[in-house]
Amino acid sequence: MSLDATLQDARERVLQTAGPIFAEKGFRDTTVREICDRAQVNLASVNYYFRDKEGLYLEVVRRAHQGLLKQVPTPLWAPETPAEHKLTDFIRALLTRMLGDAGAPWQHSLMLRELLYPTHACRALVEDYIRPQFEVLQAILSELLPESTATAVRQQIVFSIVGQCLYYRVAPHVVRMLVGDADLANHFGVEPLVHHISQFTLAALGASGQGLPAGVPISAPKSRTRRHSSPN
Amino acid sequence: MSLDATLQDARERVLQTAGPIFAEKGFRDTTVREICDRAQVNLASVNYYFRDKEGLYLEVVRRAHQGLLKQVPTPLWAPETPAEHKLTDFIRALLTRMLGDAGAPWQHSLMLRELLYPTHACRALVEDYIRPQFEVLQAILSELLPESTATAVRQQIVFSIVGQCLYYRVAPHVVRMLVGDADLANHFGVEPLVHHISQFTLAALGASGQGLPAGVPISAPKSRTRRHSSPN
DNA sequence: CATGGTATCAAACAAGCGTTTGAATGGCCA
DNA sequence: TGGCCATTCAAACGCTTGTTTGATACCATG
Q1: Which nucleotide across the nucleic acid strands is nearest to B43, CA versus C1'?
Q2: Residue A229 included in any domain
Q3: Domain range spanning residue A45?
């Protein structure tokens, strides 16, 4: 009930401290002692505020998941926006979040852990966060594909796009070891990858669907509406 | 005694038991007690044969890695084989190993863990197992692309192909939750995915992927026996 | 038989973990 | 002021973990 209550409450300090640690080390390798040390609260605080370690973890995941939703709202395009443009925007948003120069790197690490080795928090994550984006992308593809295209084929294409982007999140070490340093800097940053994956995907769609213009403008209209609501 | 000679040694039983457990639970969540219970050896065996738990883990990773190399040798095609054909074969091999109806599911789980959260065993894995395949795929692409194509672009395409396949290994839960059960069975098995990813990729490359004969079996692995060095 | 090295075993050890406890603290209202 | 409540704290508890120990069985060799 005071002004911001973020750095005041011990509860809040624990939550904010625990997030990055859980993301980096996973649930099991994270100790409540480390959390409490770094948050400068007493060892018993986790059990006092969150009942037990798992209670804290679930709350952290819930927060991270809310934070992602707030930070990356469903993008809105003007109705006359060409679908190729929307696709490129979508891919840019995806890659930006994955390689995260933005303010949310650890939330995605946590999410990736949940997807690979799901806990109780996984289902809500998929339904609330992943499925909406899955359907946005499907809608974009509907504009680029013949009407007759089967749903399953559209979904295969969605996974092909997401898979291309996710790879750089899953296996950054591999990329770093396989390509030279110079190429890494010049051709594997966010924008070069946006260019490649967009071109690659549009070319694939153009050949399988009806003939589409190959050239796609790679303009960068960052239409980020970043709302800031109360942390509740 | 003559059949395998593997079920005799306690050391061997520990190794074979530990593999799947490490793959499923990770290093930290696996207890030596569970391993020894399931292997029906004494609790002290891990320390007796492998010095400590990490010693056992490294040996397990080394074995898994060797097993993968043996099981999936570099495929050899007849020189006149069209590159599109090779690409489809390569993708089929990749997906088969990923979704593994074959005999090696847990080795890949272990590998995936290493890639995401690397330990000391990661570098060797990349150099010995991943890089060779990376270069095979690059060679195939060289046949499909103009001579003038930059190396970095070829590598981006390699990652686009691998990313598409890897997705079904990384996020099988997500796929299962997002698509209907009927579609899952009909369109997301190995062979439908081979078809989709091949077509998608070839279309992107500008080649006509249509009319390729499907159903080419993966070449049988060459049997190569290798005795491992004495425990020291 | 005696011997020495190898393998197996039950038992215990030491450390780290999550969690609990009970007292101390400090603000708020009657 | 005195009592109530939420919060903080140091300390300890109980359990699981990886690891070590010392005794015991096995077995080929002199």
Answers
A1: C9
A2: no
A3: 7-61
Torsion of CA B101, B106, B107, B110, to 10 degrees: 140
- Hey, how many other C-beta atoms are within 10 angstroms of the C-beta on A199? 18
Structural domains of chain A, count:
2
Does one domain contain both A82 and A31? no
Distance CA A114, CA A220 (A): 31
Least Cα separation, residue A105 to chain B (angstroms): 15
d(CA A110, CA A124): 14
- CA B160 to chain CA mean position, Å: 17
> Is residue B77 assigned to a domain?
yes
How far, CA to CA in Å, does A43 sit from each of A24, A54, A91, A143?
21, 15, 43, 55
Distance CA B190, CA B179 (A): 16
Q: Is the dihedral of CA B19, B23, B25, B30 positive or negative?
A: positive
Domain assignment present for B225: no
One domain, residues A159 and A72: yes
* Residue A137 domain flag: yes
Residues B101 and B57 in one domain: no
State the count of interchain CB pairs (< 8 A) between A and B: 149
Residue B167: exposure state from Cβ atoms within 10 A (0-12, 13-18, ≥19): buried
Contacts with B160 from chain A: Cβ below 8 Å: 164, 167, 196-197, 200
Beta carbons of B173 and A118 less than 8 Å apart: yes
| Tens digit of pLDDT at every position of chain B (232 positions) | 333 334 569 999 999 999 999 999 999 999 999 999 999 999 999 999 999 999 999 999 999 988 887 876 667 888 889 999 999 999 999 998 888 766 668 998 999 999 888 888 888 889 988 999 999 999 999 999 999 999 999 999 999 999 999 999 999 999 999 998 999 999 999 999 999 999 999 999 984 333 333 333 333 333 333 322 333 3
**Is A135 in the same domain as A48?**
no
Q: What CATH number corresponds to the domain at position B27?
A: 1.10.10.60
Residue B150, SS3? coil
Same domain, A98 and A196: yes
Pair (A114, A198) in one structural domain: yes
